[in-house]
Amino acid sequence: MKQYDAECPVCGRINKGLYLEETGGWMECEACGNEVKVRKIRPTQSDTEASMPQYTFMQMQHC
Description:
By secondary structure, the protein is of the alpha+beta class.
């Protein structure tokens, strides 16, 4: 299951490592304690890191 970082719409704090799929998009903010349905989510950094380097066609021409 993926983890997400989400911004609290009430206080603006970024809450990290949330399992939003499990809760249907709902979270309790760690800073202000409000329960909100998240609209802005982003994958955690570990989900966006590539395990292999990615090269463009132009970079490969110089090899």
